[in-house]
Amino acid sequence: MLLFNLVTFTIWVALFAAQVSATLFNDRLPLWASRRIGRNKWRPEYRLYSMFLPAMISPIGLGIFGAGLQYHLHYMVLALGTFMVNFSALLCVPVCINYVVECFVGHPVEVSVVMNVYRLALGLSIPFFFEQWVEAVGVGWVFGMAAFFSLFAMILMFVLS
């Protein structure tokens, strides 16, 4: 019960920290990039600059959480990994949705619905294969592979922006 309460509390702290961070940086950073790089010409890709820090935090958090489970580390290590993953997810999702909505200006409702349906479908599909994945490679490698997938997506985002 203590671990469940700790995880719930950690998610609330991550939510609060992500809200503060998003309030401070999610508009300022793209506008700075527009002034500095784009010579005051706006492009939707400037929104992606807000994702660089959270995209670097996510693989680290996944690795910390996986190592904590694999090596039976202190529960605060799990809390740190949970915080990092949730903080980065709560910062990245709105930026992704805003970016795609700005790319398809004529269809904002449809685009946000499609993005949220994909997010929901991917999130709901994980429990169907998670146990078999853990049995095949171990819990440490499950989160390690998730960290590598996240790192690959981050590198792809850097290249495309």
UniProtKB/TrEMBL annotation:
The keyword Manganese does not apply. It comes from the Eukaryota. Keywords: Membrane, Transmembrane, Transmembrane helix. InterPro entries: MFS_trans_sf (IPR036259). The keyword Phosphoprotein does not apply. One of its GO terms (molecular function) is transmembrane transporter activity. It is a multi-pass membrane protein. It is found in: Membrane. One of its GO terms (cellular component) is plasma membrane. The chain crosses the membrane at residues 6-25, 46-69, 75-101, 113-130, 136-160. This is Uncharacterized protein. The lineage of its organism: Eukaryota, Fungi, Dikarya, Ascomycota, Pezizomycotina.
